[in-house]
Specification:
Helix content: 25-40%
Strand order of the largest sheet: 10-15-14-11-13-12
Number of helices: 12
Bound molecules: N-carbamoyl-L-aspartate
Strand content: 15-25%
């Protein structure tokens, strides 16, 4: 599937099909060859345009390659590289800073931030395309594109490869994005090498199993290097550890040395690294590895310097594609999925038999009956309604019910009270398919079933403390979740992709 790149946000690598990824790297290759021949065919493509580059976290390569790419295309780059010297130190929000920058007629904004989901939030609040230059431990999609270009140049293909990811597989965003992209290609398998504390998150390994992608988890190079075609080493992300003592425990756990390389790796194996390598503390790649040659050849195993250089061509390609200057032959527009914003209360006809709602558990004159609740949800629903003390509550927990999901249901009757639409939405999250009957003068006048919408706004709190939508991040981003599975109740955060299953749901 090939959709237009014009005006598209690049927030997650997951929104790109394999054909689109190949198209981006081929475009980059074309630009790279043009520049090598010094033809400069692209030197004026973005003349007069301003590219905003707002980096709230340190960066050398990503930021400078975007600045360099903008300039090589004739555009002007408006860039800052840390919160130092900006009004963020005076407490200005991320949102205001970005909106203000975009007001300087930027045609596109590249953002980097330490919070997961910051790029999605930026894309939501701005009407110009947003490119994710790295958001917390979440994603780094343009790094992945340059990684793919490098792999294609080295191996001539993106399929039938065994990729070893080493280092920080828990907090590293580059691995997360690259792994998501490579999964599309046939014959891919993964090897993970890390101390046990930095293993890939369980939910990612479970996703690989569902997709039948072979992988092995290991704690050392000796057992894994012989299988690997590409070894992708990463830095232990000291700044993302909530507890610095935990960092100290793993800081010196893994190092690729010339000895390991020459004893265990295939001669055809190549080493990549998104850089920087932490040479101050304990280099994850021993400095001597840089110059180790494959025996009997003049070829080096280590290819991270040429990998980083590919950042320029990839970012030039992306700037041209998003501006609609290249890729004009692609006709299919890129459209975001349109989630119907329907009410969560699906009406049920009130017939004579429906009147029985007011017969179970005693009669009420006016109020609401909430029936077919999942028994575990009953007390949670009572808590969320925060009923005034004088509202008489009648409840029953484990009633037999053929219609209920697990054969048992809870019932709740509230006098002189009806839930607000927001409370109904919350009930839908806690107990989808529960029924709500409104009683007037002893009669059921309206009845409906609460249904989980596909997009849930401002109801749940993300379980990831580093997510931009969390209250303590002080961005006041609305919480947004997508329902992945209505029966099992599995939800996914719009910003950081964290999935939450029913027992982990926390209401806002
Ligand atoms: C990486 C990043 O920022 O995620 N660097 C980069 O962009 N090339 C890797 C890292 O910081 O370890």
């Amino acid at each position: 599937m090939m959709r237009s790149f014009k005006n598209r946000d690049i927030v997650s690598i997951r929104s790109f099909s394999p054909e689109e990824l190949v198209y981006v790297i081929e475009t980059a290759k074309m630009i790279k060859e043009d520049r090598l021949k010094k033809q400069a065919a692209y030197a004026h493509v973005l003349e007069g345009e301003t590219i905003g580059i707002a980096f709230f976290e340190p960066s050398t390569r990503t930021r400078l390659s975007f600045v360099c790419a903008a300039q090589a295309l004739g555009a002007h780059a408006l860039s800052f590289s840390s919160t130092e010297g900006t009004s963020l130190l005076k407490g200005e929000s991320f949102r205001h800073t970005l909106q203000m920058l975009s007001g300087y007629q930027c045609s596109l904004l590249v953002v980097r931030d330490s919070r997961d989901g910051a790029a999605q939030y930026a894309a939501d609040v701005l009407d110009i395309p947003v490119v994710n230059g790295g958001d917390g431990k979440h994603e780094h999609p343009t790094q992945t594109m340059l990684d793919l270009l490098t792999i294609r140049e080295l191996f001539g293909r993106l399929d039938h490869l065994t990729i070893g990811f080493a280092g920080d597989l828990k907090y590293g965003r580059t691995v997360r994005s690259l792994q998501a992209a490579l999964q599309h290609f046939p014959g891919i398998s993964f090897r993970y090498i890390s101390p046990p504390q930095l293993k890939p998150p369980a939910e990612e390994l479970a996703a690989l199993e569902r997709a039948h992608i072979p992988y092995k988890v290991s704690e050392n190079y000796e057992s894994t290097l012989p299988d690997i075609d590409i070894l992708y080493v990463t830095r232990i992300q000291e700044e993302r550890f909530p507890d610095k003592q935990e960092y100290e425990k793993v800081a010196r756990s893994l190092q690729l040395t010339p000895d390991l390389l020459l004893s265990y790796a295939k001669p055809s194996m190549r080493i990549l690294h998104p850089l920087p390598i932490n040479s101050l503390k304990f280099p994850e790649i021993h400095p001597a590895v840089d110059d180790v040659l494959v025996p009997g050849t003049r070829e080096k195993y280590a290819r991270y310097i040429e990998q980083a250089a590919n950042g320029l061509s990839i970012r030039m390609a992306l700037l041209c594609l998003l501006a609609g200057k290249l890729g004009t032959e692609i006709r299919e527009p890129y459209e975001l999925p349109n989630y119907e914003k329907k009410t969560t209360l699906e009406p049920v006809n009130v017939t004579e038999t429906k009147q029985e709602a007011n017969r179970v558990l005693g009669y009420i004159e006016n109020g609401t009956v909430i029936d077919h609740l999942q028994p575990d949800a009953l007390f949670k629903v009572i808590d969320l309604l925060a009923l005034p003390r004088d509202k008489l509550v009648i409840l029953g927990k484990n009633f037999e019910s053929k219609k209920a999901l697990h054969g048992k249901k809870g019932v709740l009757k509230i006098v002189d009270y009806s839930p607000t639409p927001n409370q109904l939405n919350k009930i839908a999250v806690l107990s989808p398919y529960a029924t709500v009957s409104y009683i007037k003068n002893g009669q059921v006048v309206e009845k409906g079933r609460v249904m989980l919408p596909l997009r849930i706004e401002n109801i749940m709190e993300c379980s990831n403390p580093n997510c931009i939508s969390r209250t303590e991040q002080k961005e006041y981003a609305p919480s947004v979740f997508y329902t992945l599975d209505t029966v099992q109740r599995i939800f996914q955060c719009h910003y950081c992709d964290t999935t939450i299953s029913e027992d982990a749901v926390r209401l806002r």
